Amino acid sequence: MVRAVVRLGAVLALACLVVAIGAPRGWAFGSVRPVPGPVVRDFDPPSKDWLPGHRGVDLAAPVGSSVRAAASGRVSVAQVIAGRGVVTVVHGDLRTTYEPVRARVRVGDQVSAGDVIGTVEAGHCPSGCLHFGLKRGDEYLDPLGGSAVRLLPESAVAEARKLAAARAAALASGGVAASGSGLLLNPVGGRISSPFGRRFHPIFHEWRLHAGVDLHASCGTPIRAAADGVVRSVSYDSSGGHRLVIAHPGGLTTHYLHALKRYQVRKGQKVKRGQVVGLVGSTGWSTGCHLHFGTKINGRLVDPAQLL
Ligand SMILES: [Zn+2]
Ligand SMILES: [Zn+2]
Predict the structure, then answer these.
(1) CATH number of this structure's domain 39-141
(2) Could you tell me if 122 and 141 are in contact, meaning their C-beta atoms sit under 8 angstroms apart?
(3) Ligand 2 geometric centre to CA of 258 (Å)
(4) What is the DSSP letter of 245?
(5) Contact assessment for residue 101 and residue 59, using Cβ atoms and an 8 Å cutoff
C-alpha cells in the first residue's frame, strides 16, 4: 500500500512535468456566421426533451436581411412549418436550421458556406432576429459554442487528413494500448482511439486541445470508477454531455464524459475502484459511443495514458 502510494506520487509528479497545458480555443460550427448580428439569446437546451428551453441561438438581424449557409451542404427543408419559414441544411451527420426565414433555396439544392439561403422574417424576436440551430439526430447542439467564427487554413486541412488517416489505421489495428503505469483502472477496458493533446476536432473542424483520451467502448458498456474516491460533480452540458468528476487522494480528479444517461452516483458519494458509475454513450459533442476520460492533478490536465 505504502509502496503504491509512493509510486503514485512519483508518477503524478512526472505527469505534471511532461504535460504541456494549452487553453481550449474558441470555435463555432462552419466557417460563416449566418447573419452578422450579435447573439441576443443564448443556447439553453432543456435537461429533458419535454421541458422548455432554447434549442439554438438568436442572432440580431433586421427583417429582410440576408441569411447565409454556415457551412456547405444540401438543403433538406425549405418550407413554412407552423406559420414560420424554416430552412435546414444537411452537413454529413449534422444539420443547421434557420428560422424564421423566407427561403430562397429549394429542397435538394447544394449550397456553399456563405451562400444566401433566404431572408429574415418577423416573428421570433421583437426587434428582428434569426434563430440558428444545430442538430445531430434528435439532439440539439450549440451552433456557436461561445466564440468567433474562423476560416480554416489549407495546411490545417492537410494535417487533419493525415491525422484522421492515422487514427483510422490505429483503430483498424485495434487501437493504441495505454502505455502507462496501471495506477488507474481503465474505466471501460477499451483501447485509446484518440490520444491526449492537440488534435483536429472531428465536429468543429478546428485544432483544439483534446483534454483527455477517448477510450473505445460500445454504447451501454459499464463505466467503472478508475480509483477509490468521492464524487465531486454530476452534470450535463452541451459539449461533454453527461459528465462525472471523481476526486481522489493526492489532488487527482478523474473526468468521465458522454455517458448514455445520468450517472448512477450522486455528488458526495464515496466510490470504490471498479464500481460501476454509469453507461457509455454519445451525449454532447461526440461522433459515436466512446468514453472520454480525463485526469487532472491539482486542477492541471495530465495525459491519462500515463496513469492507466
Ligand atoms: Zn430562438
Ligand atoms: Zn475525447
Answers:
(1) 2.70.70.10
(2) no
(3) 9
(4) E
(5) no
CB neighbour class for 106 (10 Å; exposed up to 12, middle 13-18, buried from 19): exposed
Distance CA(3)–CA(8), nearest Å, equals 9
Ligand nearest to the CA of 57: 1
What is the CA(206)–ligand 2 centre distance, in A? 14
* Ion ligand 1, residue ranges at CB < 5 A: 58, 131
In this structure, which ligand is nearest to the CA of 131?
1
User: Which ligand has the minimum distance to the alpha carbon of residue 42?
Assistant: 1
Tens of pLDDT, residue by residue over 33-57, are: 899 888 888 877 776 667 777 888 8
- Percent of the chain at pLDDT > 70 equals 73
Please state the domain extents for the chain.
1-25+149-180, 39-141, 184-306
Give CA–CA dist 295/104, Å, rounded. Answer: 49
Cell readout for 135 is: 442538430
CA–CA distance, 184 with 227 (Å, rounded to integer): 6
User: CB–CB of 294/304 below 8 Å?
Assistant: yes
Cβ proximity of 303 and 19 under 8 Å: yes
Handedness of CA 219, 220, 226, 229 (dihedral sign): positive
175 alpha carbon – ligand 1 mean position (Å): 41
pLDDT band of residue 229 (cuts 50, 70, 90) is very high
List all residues 6 or more positions away from 15 whose beta carbon is below 8 Å from its beta carbon.
295, 297, 302, 303, 306, 307
- Answer yes or no: same fold for 39-141 and 184-306: yes
0.70 surpassed by pTM: no
Q: 224 CA distance to ligand 2 centroid (A)?
A: 17
CATH for the stretch 184-306: 2.70.70.10
Residue entry with cell 463505466: 223
